[in-house]
């Protein structure tokens, strides 16, 4: 079973199997694809890494933008894609937005890709 809400990534039920054990159906594939697509861009992958490794569990967008030679709107677009994919969440505080990782998002991806029995 899968569940999806705007703030919660798709979650594999306890009886869900990694893709190495059972093929995904069309509905499952359409729910997980945006998560993988979001990470398929080098900028978004770097942003997720910066957010995930931030001290205190969150990072201000003001601390993210300086690491890239991109405009603020472009960084905001990439962060929106990560948020819509269920990988990060954010809160506005005054003029700044703070981002934090949604650990369940990475857990879902890790569970889907788990090929431990094949290694």
Automatic annotation (TrEMBL):
User: What is the gene called?
Assistant: arsR_2
Q: Which domain of life is it from?
A: Bacteria
Report domain HTH arsR-type positions.
24-119
What organism does the record attribute this protein to?
Answer: Paractinoplanes durhamensis
Q: NCBIfam families per the record?
A: HTH_metalloreg
This chain belongs to the protein called Transcriptional regulator
Q: Which InterPro entries match?
A: ArsR-like_HTH, ArsR_HTH, HTH_ArsR_DNA-bd_dom, HTH_MetalResp_TranReg, WH-like_DNA-bd_sf, WH_DNA-bd_sf
Q: Does the keyword Aminoacyl-tRNA synthetase apply?
A: no
Keyword Membrane present in the record's keywords: the answer is no
Assigned keywords, A-Z:
DNA-binding, Transcription, Transcription regulation
């Amino acid at each position: 079973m899968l569940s999806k809400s705007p703030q919660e990534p798709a979650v594999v039920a306890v009886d869900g199997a990694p893709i190495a054990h059972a093929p995904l159906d069309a509905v499952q594939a359409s729910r997980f694809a945006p998560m993988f697509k979001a990470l398929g861009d080098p900028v978004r992958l770097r942003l997720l890494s910066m957010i995930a490794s931030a001290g205190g569990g969150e990072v201000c967008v003001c601390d993210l933008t300086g690491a890239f030679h991109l405009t603020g709107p472009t960084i905001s677009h990439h962060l929106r894609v990560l948020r819509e994919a269920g990988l990060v969440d954010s809160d506005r505080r005054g003029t700044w937005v703070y981002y934090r990782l949604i650990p369940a998002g990475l857990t879902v991806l890790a569970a889907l890709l788990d090929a431990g029995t094949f290694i």
